[in-house]
## 1
Amino acid sequence: MKTRDYLRTRFFPHLWCAGCGHGTVLNALLRAVDHLGLPKEDIVMVTGIGCSARMAGYVDFHTMHTLHGRALAFATGIKMSRPELQLLVPMGDGDALAIGGNHFIHAARRNIDMTAIIMNNRIYGMTGGQFSPLSGEGTAATTAPWRSIDPAFDAMELARSAGASFAARSTTFHVRELEKILIAAMEHKGFSVVEIFSQCPTYYGRKNQAGDAPKMLEAFRDGTAKLGSKALEDDPQLIPRGVFIDRDAPEYGASYAELCKKAAAESSPERRYGKEVPRC
Amino acid sequence: MSRVRFVQGNEACTLGALYAGMDFFAGYPITPSSEIAEMLSGELPPRGHTFLQMEDEIASLCAVIGGSLTGRKAMTATSGPGFSLMQEALGYAVMAEIPLVIVNVMRGGPSTGLPTQVSQGDVNQARWGIHGDHAVIALTAGSHQALFESTVRAFNLAETFRTPVILLYDELIAHMRERVEIPEDGEIPLVDRLRTSVPRDVDYRPYLPREDGRLPMSDFGGDHRYNVTGLYHDMWGFPSTDPEVVRGLLSHLVDKIEGKEDELTFTREYETDDAETLLISYGSAARSARQAVFDARERGIRMGLLELETLWPFPARKVRDAVAAATDTVVVEMNLGQVYQQVLRAVRHRERVFLSNRIDGRLITPADIRKVLRIISGVGVWA
């Protein structure tokens, strides 16, 4: 299918700014879905709040636009009820790791089968350019006029320690690589995290003299390097890209199904609650 | 043969939920409601149904919304602090019209308050805990049998009106043990949500109400692909700021509940026919009020009790009629007068309505109520 066939074009124009990286992410995601041949009716997209979250409105899947930071919790309810569905959860960096940090680490810990996509533009865009927990020290933002003193999370390290069984990072410059990573993440059985550097020329770019969208894309090209590459070895300042974690681990829904079987075999009405007493 | 059991209130509630067909639970441990989650962790998995212990109450209600939307009868259970955390997702459920049940076992507040003591302080929180204009349904119960029935009713109303229903009962009911007679299957009718008859591949409008205000649902992830949002939305579920859409949706959300007072308000009456003094109460306080009525009747005093089993929408008409027939009215509750204020709003002669309350974490007693009655009648309290 064409990318367009996955879109609800009657709800366009979208609200992303000119030069925003989120459209590139959407494009790569739809190409990945198409590559996997997933029918639209098998895909659920759950989003939180923010620029990233508006993606749910634009795609012709089962879509749910929820609360700031809570998308993974809603998605957990859906997945546990309908395990056969493919869950995609795109989030912003603040959405996923500030207000949604708790839900993120616990979804990763359970290793529930869904793909969490962190569209990391290092800023709160929709609310007007405030710093996020991924902005990092020295970032200028509308709530950091003297530049931020807050250290940043490393989403990959966080995903690893929380128990995610797949984690990868790419950027909106590396679109072919991004598509491959998204395919691998969706094919993975378990909790998969894909962090994508996405440019926000409107707020991050402007506040930090990072230039326009092409300039910011060039910075993704020049500031990152593939895991295991010579470039990364030579220059540890570069940010690594690629698949950080890809391991087999018990998936939560599958474990729950096993638990139900065991419970059904071992439980009898006599063991259930509320002892029957003779009628008086 | 009926099944008779001797159980805690929390168990009665759980048995009611299972009777109602609840098949999806997500929760987080909190006193004094934890027994519900404990029971369900043993009851749901053998049936192949979903039990989730989430990372907090916020996630619990979010997961319940997800479960309900996919077609399950879903609930969570909590107490004051957890209910505070749930307000954000409760607002979402109101806006997106998700049927579900939230059990809030009331303990003393504010904050951590009195985790193991009785209170009825969350009545107004149930009504106004979330931001923005809206309407909610909140039920309560004063005995285990009534709690079983209120629980089934909570699911029936949630499914009928496509809305969250809050079941408020107090710690005393939760932890006291009492006899419950479980009705036979079919004895209490069960309601399932309306499901759309629109076939697959035909334009389904999830938020287009029928003439009677009801919205047929399509199980999320099933035949129809649609959008759900907490923003003001049009009939397709797409965000809109059109003033007509905004006004239309808000009035729909309020009217579908506020306009159905007769269908939604449940009360019990004891000795009210010729009562000169009327007590109005609910939950465990109503048990003491009932005892006060029986004691008074033995002494030839014409007293009656109107027990509320719906708190929201407030049964204003029933209260107004009952109060009009009496000389004096005393509202009996364990808070600073949350239902008392509603009674004042409902009646014409406010000067004949009084409050008998306790706010110290102890059950209000018939003697407490008698003291207030003595003051009203001009006899005074000697000690």
Note: Chain B has two domains: 3-182, 267-376.
## 2
Amino acid sequence: MISTPRYLGRGSWLGSRDPRIPIVVGVLAAATVIQIWDIRIVAVLFALAQVYYRTARIPFRLVRRQWAFAIAFVSILVLVNTILTGGEIGNFDQSDLHPLFYLPLIGTPISAESLSYGATQLLRFLTFITIGFPVAYAIAPGDLGPALARLRIPEKFAFGVDLTYRFVPSLASDLRETIDAQRVRGYEWDRGKGGPVARIRRTVPLIVPLTMNAIVGAEDTIDAMDLRGFGTGPRTWLRELRFDRSDRGVLVLALTIFVAITVASVLGLTKLWVFPPLLTLAAGRL
Amino acid sequence: MSSMSMPRSMWGVDSRVIVYAAIGAALYGVLAFFSFVIPGSNNVSIRPAFAIVPFFGYAFGPVVGLFTGLVGNAIADQISGYGLLTAWNWSIANGLVGLIAGVLAAGSMAKMGGKIVGPAIVAAVATAVGLLFVFSDIVVFGNDFNTALTGSYLWALVPDLIASVILVPVLVLAWEPLKESMGR
């Protein structure tokens, strides 16, 4: 029911890399993909992302639900966005579009350009998600703090992220207990009648005790940190991180792709590419 | 110890701030499990967990609020499968909601209307202003202004506003006596 971040890349090639690699590759990939609207280039990056993802050897059966949700969510998002644009596509002038048909009732024109735009948007999202999965599943939870700290992220922020990942499983367990405890009293948050306001109010018996218990319990952690002199000097990390040859190779590849795409984008080579068969189809309607 | 003996500023980062921030982010991530679609809407879902962001900003300050929204939203996205970095600009928008709630809580707005209306106003203003950052979808995802307004901003604002205005005062009412008994 309630999922928590799990370390599923143990023993894999990517899981054996320096934990900074999935983070840096994720950031570089995000900065790269947002510059591209040509689906042919996005497709190449998506294929590379798939190869990269497979090196993490994340068992599909354990992330099937997450993949299903992600694909369904981005599909709905792209579909809704395509409808909401009312036929407007980026910098295209309405008169330059090649309409294929009009949506019944709302009359939004579906053109060769809007379908190409939607397909590109979908593939861009899937590339983001493919690269993002290893950040969550192929970094050992205990490595996240030192990895962020070594990336020059302020050490208190890095420690905060580390602490957050440690709190998630225990809070998820507390939430399960709270749900069970309320169920014994005959309470079911997802049953009963009423609109959105009534449904939000029904979450109060879960959210309030869980939040208040977590805040009260936090005092022990604060005391433990204060007793160890947290924040009185620079923090050191037990885990030492060092790039090896493979790590450097992955970094150089990701950086090279980023630079190449940035140059191509500046030269105007990454603009929306419209599928020729759709243009032919639209021309046939005229 | 540093957090006990020094006077605490709104922007200071000590052990207390870090632990509350981590608790807030983890709570947001875990509670994101509760969401439901508004009947008859275009797949607009309400996440009651969003109220955790303005509440932590209101109760513990802008730094805690910023971290709760920023990291909590990223973790919620990751747990649900959407990906930690896919919508990084939405995580920043969530962080801004917590930050603004923290700043407003220190001002006169929070004192208007007592312990129910004041927190509700702070949560509403923080949500409306902080979520303006989702207009960065225009740059990140190549959306046009109309899509960013109707498909991103209003899509997020309406359900988040409903959740915040209802739940933040409830959380503040539960927190106030606890705060006093803990000597905060």
Note: The mean pLDDT of chain B is 85.
## 3
Amino acid sequence: MPQKNNEQMTQMNMIEAIRSAMDVKMSQDPDVLVFGEDVGYFGGVFRCTAGLQEKHGLHRCFDTPIAEGGIIGAAVGMGAYGLRPVVEIQFADYIYPAYDQICSEAARLRYRSNGEFTAPLTIRTPVGGGIHGGQTHSQSPEALFTHISGLKTIIPSNPYDAKGLLIKAIEDNDPVLFLEPKRLYNGPFSGDPHMPARNWSKHELGLVPEGHYTIDFEKARTHREGANLTILCYGTMVWVAEAAVEATGVDAEILDLRSLLPLDLDAIVKSVNKTGRCLILHEATRTSGFGAELIAEVQQHCFYALEKPIVRVTGWDTPYPHALEWEYFPGLERCSDAIVRIMED
Amino acid sequence: MANRKNTSNLHVPEPEFRPGDLPDYSSINLDKEQWPGKPDTLVDAFETESHATGLVRAMKLNGEVYGEWNPNLKPDVLIQGLRNMLLTRIVDKRMFAMQRQGKLSFYMKSIGEEAIAVATAMALRDSDMVFPTYRQQGILMTRGWPVLDLMNQCLSNKADKLEGKAIPICYSVREKGFYSISGNLGTQMIQAVGWAMACAYKGTDSIAAAFTGEGATAEGDFHYALNFASTYRAPVIINVVNNQWAISTFQGIAAGQSRSFASRGLGFGLASLRVDGNDFLAVYAAVKWAAERARKGGGATVIEHFTYRKEGHSTSDDPSAYRPKGEAEIWPFGDPIDRLKEHLIKLGEWSQERQDALIAELKAHVLETYKKAESMGTLATPTNINPATMFEQVFEEVPTHLRRQRQELGI
């Protein structure tokens, strides 16, 4: 981890790390302001903005009407003016009313004005399941956004990355969609709901600098080095992959992609060319999911190194069910089985 | 019409007149009506109800002033307004004709609606950002953007500052306070509110002015804009240009049972005015009123500009397919240029001869400018834009994947 030696470090969970990123930027830059549904006085339904209004003022952290398209549209106008809005969409499942403002406006403003107007906004939104949220609080819509030119899509898997990447997003001069795997807010998740819950309080990736630091986009993080299999994953699935590798004893390399667009293709190609096998994990539905894009790139660039067909383990092509959440979720068992299969000769 | 008969209880509104009908608006006599007076700029929004459903006017069809809204502009300001409107109309006609010759892919005229853009721009400060639709080119004429730049954009030639990235008429002119036009209707309204919120946040007294057609008021963005503008008391003017037609769809499809588009603002607690959009003086006065209200902290105003789209929606449209021919000529609100001309003549400041001379001067200027633009390329000539620019301005810097795609294209 590229931390400075004399930097004050604090153990944080992901909520605290995200809040700290906003707090640091609000303290540094008066053009940074935060708004969204319930984010003001109350501090957000997941508490990510708790205390920001009290510390920085009502005008810098405030509630909005329940109108996601309005939140993003207003942020585009503010961004064009020169502010740096950081907005929260309460659940990614609620982002669709804002799809036009994100895809046709925020992501296209720079291009259609040839750089005269830009929309340097950051859109934070919780994604993923595992919290009994059913189909309206569990979705992972990343592929709907990585398909859009002009938009960056970021998804951290731990507190340290979350803070560094969020500060980077706020400082970026282009719109950034910052997806927060809500199942990881309080701790890593093995993908098996019957295993004891873990938290970030003793985890090394929960040790976060208090001040300013950034993590570059387009840089995957090697979560685990390995020789015989490359696992491409992001968000919650990084931790499921870790548990599955432990369970199977396979010497796998786990790449936490972190930045889906721009994508660190070089790291992916290097790893798969080394291991000769590639497993892709994501929680989102399968068809036209981000895994399809990864498969296309891996087969194009690593075809002659591959010893087995690329495999993907994903959510099913159904809405996220409520009662059958763990049958839907690509959990420890399914991921472990896939690892065993791909390692067969 | 027999085969279009409605045989159910479902109400589907239709305009009064369709092709084949003889349009008749003789029951409308605007000059005999009493219209609302001019309230204090910080009046309670709910006291603008009669303004939202009535009509703000300052001159009769013959150019004679009446009522409380006359802005009492100096003759040279009025002549400048006339000139800006004429320039807009002459440029429109030139570009339309050139589209027919295949020199550009597409064009949209604002004929009959010039007063709305021109008077608004003259009533605002140049530093106030406007968020236009594709029918407010009059703002650019008023703010002095060179016509040559406009033509280069429409022709997507090598001098186009947008490097051919946008279709004709989707201008972006930050230096003239003119926000990048989106082809997706309605989206700019809430962005204008965001800009206005930023003005307030930064403590400036600048304001924003958004435009939409009446058709796109049905988009959610309009409601977001009114809601946010009201909640945060944003210094913004939401202009609804009601030109009666959204391509082929008459205004009643968006309006439903509402008495006016302006009245939608009242429900959000916003001051709301319906203005005779062909009355240059009334548009100027209404926008000035709303701008002062916004600058004083009174928040947003919704202004409906009541007008008529005299020509097709765009070069791709033929209005005779859905409305009667000749309706534009008998539309009982007159023509904005004729009315301001008559007003100036009544003031003793203008004459038909001067009008003719001005038109001739502007036509010559526009033709000469067009020739200059055409010499730098048109859609009909091979493109002289560097293909590498296609990959630029997607992001601030060209990322790796776009660099690879550019290499794939061989550049």
Note: Chain A has two domains: 9-209, 221-343.
